[in-house]
Design brief:
The structure is a single chain. This protein is of the alpha/beta class and 361 residues long. The protein folds into 3 domains: 87 residues, MurE/MurF, N-terminal domain (Udp-n-acetylmuramoylalanyl-d-glutamate--2,6- Diaminopimelate Ligase, Chain: A, domain 1, 3-Layer(aba) Sandwich), CATH 3.40.1390.10; 213 residues, Hexapeptide repeat proteins (UDP N-Acetylglucosamine Acyltransferase, domain 1), CATH 2.160.10; 40 residues. Helix content is 21%, strand content 26%. The strands form 5 sheets. A 12-stranded mixed β-sheet has the order 6-9-12-15-18-23-26-29-32-35-37-38. The chain has a 10-stranded parallel β-sheet with strand order 7-10-13-16-19-24-27-30-33-36, with no helix packed on it. The protein is flat and about 125 Å long.
Length: 361
């Protein structure tokens, strides 16, 4: 087991207080950590939990606010990133399955599977598909005709990658996700609903990760395209001909309608949705449960059911909360105006009466 000081050396961290020689046996959250575990503080809302934690050490930002704790503080640039490094010391990755094709897997004679790849039990590899070096196709996964999967990918159980789709290198696709299902395209101009053929593909670039139970529809023509480094959560719907730029983050239950394009490093929070045929600029942030019905400029944060700029939304909501107060103030002003008008009319009447009296005399 490493000591606190050894972990600090690994992270190039400065130690404050505690017992640097304390042995560390694992990682945990601030509230659950035991005296032989290490935790981290990356969000101010957990500051009080840090003050009462039993952890042997807590990773904190060296430019942030420091809690007073029983253990050691380890000052790092980014506590979350550093914690990920420390976690790797105690949680080893799952053992890689052996290379080769499981006896119960079905691999079409025209398919190519690299000898270093691993094909799990009851997996299916259809005609003319290609599976690259060191890629893992887990049990019960389906790889359709002419699918190309690159090197070092991990395709989890029950994933379906349908015909002609293209998967890059180091792609991770979690259980029960479907890549290449038909886009939702129908012609309703006639009395009967006519299905529009979806003849395109899905292209997924390198270093993409897609969570479980997510659907990525094939294009009506051309390609639905998820570009390098993008990470997609569970239960996400991506419609036909959508383009998602590099290094985007799409959280759970988000949905993107057809032919919409997301720029680089876009963030879509949980349960947000974007209508079809829109452009979302580089670096934009769409907050949780936001509904986007128009283009979003680059680097803008939008929020609310009509996706307005977040500061505008906050000002509007602040005014809405004060509506009862505004109503009282308006009523008081109306009363004052009525009294002033009456006073002015009374004064004008007295002036007129005096003028008439002066004239007659």
């Amino acid at each position: 087991m490493p000591s606190v000081s050894e972990i600090a050396q690994l992270l190039n961290a400065k130690i404050i207080g505690g017992n640097p020689s304390q042995q560390v046996n694992g990682v945990a959250g601030l509230r659950d950590a035991q005296p032989d575990q290490i935790s981290f503080l990356a969000n101010e809302r957990y500051f009080r939990a840090a003050q009462t934690t039993q952890a042997a050490a807590v990773l904190v930002a060296k430019n942030g606010r420091f809690p007073t704790i029983r253990g050691s503080l380890l000052l790092v640039e980014n506590p979350s990133t550093a914690f990920a490094t420390v976690t790797g010391l105690f949680h080893k990755p799952l053992e890689r399955p052996p290379a080769g094709v499981h006896p119960t897997a079905v691999v079409h004679p025209t398919a190519f599977v690299d000898p270093t790849a691993s094909i799990g039990a009851n997996a299916v590899i259809e005609a003319n598909a290609r599976v690259g070096a060191r890629t893992i196709i887990s049990a019960l996964a389906f790889v359709g005709e002419e699918v190309v999967i690159g090197e070092d990918c991990f395709i989890h159980p029950h994933v379906s990658i349908l015909h002609r789709c293209r998967i890059g290198n180091r792609v991770i696709i979690h259980a029960n996700t479907v890549i290449g299902s038909d886009g939702f395209g129908f012609d309703i101009s006639c009395e009967t609903t006519i299905k529009i053929p979806q003849t395109g593909i899905v292209k997924i670039d390198d270093d993409v990760e897609i969570g479980s139970n997510t659907s990525v529809d094939r294009a009506r023509f051309g390609q639905t395209w998820i570009q390098n480094g993008t990470k997609i959560d569970n239960l996400v719907q991506i419609a036909h001909n959508v383009v998602i730029g590099p290094n985007c983050l799409i959280a759970g239950q988000a949905g993107i309608a057809g032919s919409t394009r997301l720029g680089r490093r876009v963030i879509m929070a949980g349960q947000s949705g974007v209508s079809g045929h829109l452009e979302v600029g580089d670096g934009a942030v769409i907050t949780g449960q936001t509904g986007v019905g128009k283009d979003v400029p680059a680097n803008q944060i939008v929020s609310g059911y009509h996706a307005e700029p977040i500061m505008q939304l906050k000002r509007r909501l602040a005014h809405e909360r004060r509506l009862p107060e505004y109503a009282r103030r308006i009523a008081a002003l109306e009363k004052q105006i009525t009294e002033l008008v009456f006073l002015i009319k009374t004064q004008n009447g007295l002036i007129s009466l005096k003028q008439e009296t002066d004239t007659s005399s």
